[in-house]
Amino acid sequence: xxxxxxxxxxxxxxxxxxxxxMFAYYPYLVRTPATETAYLGxxxxxxxxxxxxxxxxxxxxxxxxxxxxxxxASYGDISxxxxxxxxxxxxxxxxxCFWMENxxxxxxxxxxxxxxxxxxxxxxxxxxxxxxxxGHYVLEVPSAYNITLHAGERxxxxx
Length: 159
Description:
Blueprint: H1 9-24, H2 26-29, H3 33-41, E1 45-50, E2 53-60, H4 63-68, H5 75-80, E3 86-98, E4 107-113, E5 116-123, E6 131-142, E7 155-157
Parallel strand pairs: 2-3
Antiparallel strand pairs: 1-2, 1-7, 3-6, 4-5, 4-6
């Protein structure tokens, strides 16, 4: 059976649409793990004690690191740095709002005030809804690491 020449138009249109969509999302497709690894590798590391257990964390100490956080990072990027997550360090206890735009993994977020975890939130990937709480630090740990954070636990940054 032979198709008429008009039967190929839907196939051609679908191909054109697919190519156009690929070019539209090209910046997202070409983001390489090396980019995130280089960024995370440039961050200083610190040690935090949570319920008397010692953990290495990446430190977000300035506005640039606070804004970028763990956007576009993967579990492998973080574990490759020898860390359990990222600790955002602020100058004092204040209202800190976090959201998950461009963050592909589930995170536990813990607000820490006066050496104690004050609030824990299980964040949803890519959510743009802000979650706000008071704290001097905010710790983000990928849920895949099975480290459970609890409000009321001691959490102290070494140094």
